Amino acid sequence: MSKAWLIARREFVSNITKGSFLFAAFGVPLVVIALLFLVFFVIAQSEDDTERIGAVGYVDQSGIFSDAVDVPEDFVAYESAETARAALDESEIGAYFVVPENYLAVGNIDTVSRTSLPEALRDQFDAFLISNLGRDLQPEQIERLIEPINNTVLTLDNGRRLQSDALLGLLFTPFIFVFVFLLGSQTTSSYLMSGIVEEKSSRVMEILVTTVTPFQLLFGKIIGLGALGLVQLLAWIGAGAIVLSLGQGIPALQGVTIPLDLIVIGLLYFLLGYFLLASIFAGVGAVSSSEQESRQLAGIFSLGFSVPFFFITQFLTDPDGPLVTFLSLFPFTSPVTIMMRMGFGAIPTEQLILSIIILLVTTLIVVWASARIFRWALLLYGKRPSFGQIIGALRRSPVMATTPNESAGR
Amino acid sequence: MATAIQVDHISKSYGSFQAVRDLTFEVYSGEIFAMLGPNGAGKSTTIRMILDILKPDSGIIRVLGGKIDESIKNRIGYLPEERGLYRSVPVVDVMTYLGTLKGLSSNEARKRSLAYLDKLELGEFAKKKVSDLSKGMQQKVQFAVTVLHDPELIIIDEPFSGLDPVNTLIVEGLIKEFRAKGGAVVMSTHQMYQVEYLADRLVMINRGQQALYGQVDEVRNRYALPAVIVEGEGNWAALPGIERVETETDGRGTLLFLKANTQADDILEMIAKRDDFHVRRFELAVPRLNDIFIQVVEQGRLGA
Predict the structure, then answer these.
(1) Is the ipTM of this complex over 0.85?
(2) CB A407 within 8 A of CB A381
(3) Which of A170, A237, A311, A373 has its CA 20 to 30 A from that of A261?
(4) Closest Cα partner for B141 from A197, B132, A212, B102?
């Protein structure tokens, strides 16, 4: 197998220096980190917005705020909407709330402001309102009215604990994983495919097949490019770790860690999914007559991998329903489905095991079939063989096909 | 001489089309063996079967003493008819990579590649991309790849196509050098004059079958006419022993067909004695390989 190793090394070395790979592996995480800091900056900015608004007026026509308690700093009471409006026009205040006479009955409050109202100011006014509505209650009760549930999510499968603020992170991590999986396996598989198409069209294949066996060639390519995909995955995990350690100031990322089980199962699905996709792409590359054609064919299979995204609502509303179960077991959709579901909640262990077994068996069959097609089609040039011919090649003993009319002695 | 290739009664069909039928020949070490035949005769199919890309339907092929396997593949060099090199990669890197696939260490492959590039007057192009080279240069690089790993057998398909006369001479030199070291050369070509002065033996395949096989000179003599070719002045038809007179196909000489009991020597003697004849050229009418080729193909067509 030393020749397969040589091929693997060449595929790895010659592709790792490609601009498109460097961008996908390192550029995109950098962009994501940069975006995250931008978000961080915007959040910090909006905290400042309460200060930007300055003093806030309120007009009480309901009597709730007579002898108001817990008045926040910068809150100023006005006799009427007119005086408050005048103060706003004079820029003494940045905004004012009008609590109408029938507030208790209908719950309407008018807000007037020059600019959009920061969320933090709304929360501040909410708390002020609750404090005054419930001024007969104990301070703890007020506290609970303001923040009724301090949520800790405990997912069933793995006992991960997260504060409710971090729920987004829980869903987000698998999404990133899925994204990296799709991006990583697609990039490397398409390198694999275009490499084969190039070797066929430049006729390097003629020399390769007289030097190595088709299986060594296929195996070497898959291993070399798989290593490339792993580099990309590791780059992303590294970037994720950086984001999480730097991003603790952002509520959505607080307490989020990349859980080990997600990494282990993720890696397993990544590898199996990659082998599946790569061997399909290799077979497609071998039967295609041009790069363009191979891309069209391969696109169909790639689409299959991302199908679970279309059913994302089902994952939330009916995670144990037949559709989600099917997507979890069907080998072309299971890598993405399982990784997404890991974020949403428990996956029954037996379903997980079954899914892995189905994926493993399918991958083995596809690798075998692809190796056969690969061997058969390596020296076919020009016209793409028909589907029937490909099936025929799978059933017959493995021999190579050639195009007699073009290649026959000149 | 050791037998480098033994092709023993092989046949191959693609569906209902029989590409090769019952073909037998041998190639020896230290010789240049030409494989001739019209387009579609089955030459490439035969080469591919020798290289184990295709399996014969029946018959046996032995290469370098055994059934072909990985270690034997490392002792073969192949120059395909349709040249193949990675296009956007530096020349020396392509050569090194293909050399390591043939079992050389990376250092050794690189060292030899650079040495060959110098020898082929391409030293300055080592770091250039293959696509920056002219067709003739790529051709020479491809040839260097074929012999880089010191194979014992090379199979070269149209080795001179696209080469100018100077580069043709360089590649010819390399092929002869390879033969002198005891290597076996299988050369498939349509350049008949090159076969005449380069090749030791030949096989001609027509419609998948062996049409001619043997020493090049012997095959030519086999087709020799009972005639001599002369250039000069004189009334040739008046000479005794001459059956009839024809103009040579290229129009320069005259073909004198001899009567059954007359030898070429007798004619030469007669001419020398007579003053009314002047001769600038006198040779046996050994046909050009080209004419034999055409004749064989024509006969095959009529026979079918």
Answers:
(1) no
(2) yes
(3) A311
(4) B132
State the best of B53, B102, B141 to mutate against chain A, taking most chain A CBs within 10 Å.
Answer: B53
Cβ–Cβ contact A138 with B under 8 A: no
Burial (0-12, 13-18, 19+ Cβ within 10 Å), A51: exposed
What is the dihedral angle through the alpha carbons of A222, A224, A229, A235, rounded to the nearest 10 degrees?
170
User: Is B61 in a helix, a strand, or coil?
Assistant: strand
Mean pLDDT to the nearest integer, B283-303: 81
Question: Confidence class of residue A344 from pLDDT cuts 50, 70 and 90?
Answer: low
DSSP codes, A277-289: HHHHHHHHHHH-S
Q: Which residue of A204, A208, A409 is in closest CB contact with B44? A: A409
Q: Shortest CB distance from B84 goes to which of A3, A203, A407?
A: A203
- pTM tops 0.90: no
B176 residue type, one letter: K
- Cα distance between residue A148 and residue A170, in whole Å: 22
Residues of A in Cβ contact (< 8 Å) with B51 = 210
Encode pLDDT of B40-75 as tens digits: 888 888 998 999 888 899 999 999 988 888 889 999
Residue whose entry in the numeric block shows the structure tokens 């004012």: A96
Least CB–CB distance from A399: residue in B54, B97, B101: B54
